[in-house]
Design goal:
6 helices, five-stranded mixed β-sheet, 7 strands
């Protein structure tokens, strides 16, 4: 693991208000223990983001989400203020920026991305699951920006 990644994760964990308060009240050992747990958890998220077929980061007006199959990590902040998501994108996880999308009705009616990397056309449109690449094709048509595009070059 790169030292820069660990440095960012440690700094993020140390900046949490609860950890700062524990340090202020003299409970340094507990703060360090909680920070280590947070760093290890976030490293696990980064490993999942790198290995799962449909893992992706999506950012819109409502916040930033890291979709990792059955797990979602989110914040109300934009990606610029979510270091874990920024690290995942820097390490190659596909990023869908939907902030430029103006047709929210069309976006809301899109099928969800399949959790396990397989398409599911057996259900109605509301519960239909598609591949990440299919989703990217659709949202790009609505005006979304894509980084680390997993689609094969044409």
């Amino acid at each position: 693991m790169q030292t820069g990644v660990l440095r960012v994760l440690r700094a993020t964990a140390a900046s949490w208000w609860r950890h700062r308060e524990l340090r202020r009240t003299g409970q340094t050992a507990l703060a360090q223990q909680l920070e280590r747990k947070a760093v290890l958890r976030d490293l696990g998220y980064l490993k999942q983001a790198a290995s799962l077929p449909n893992a992706h980061v999506i950012c819109g007006e409502g916040g930033t989400f890291i979709h990792l199959g059955w797990t979602t990590v989110s914040t109300f902040a934009p990606i610029e203020r979510f270091p874990l998501a920024t690290l995942a994108v820097a390490r190659g996880t596909p990023f869908i920026d939907i902030r430029p999308v103006t047709d929210v009705i069309a976006f809301a009616n899109l099928p969800r991305v399949a959790r396990d990397g397989s398409e599911n056309h057996d259900h109605s449109d509301a519960s239909r699951a598609v591949l990440l690449t299919t989703c990217i094709d659709t949202v790009e048509g609505l005006g979304a920006r894509i980084l680390n595009d997993p689609r094969p070059r044409q």
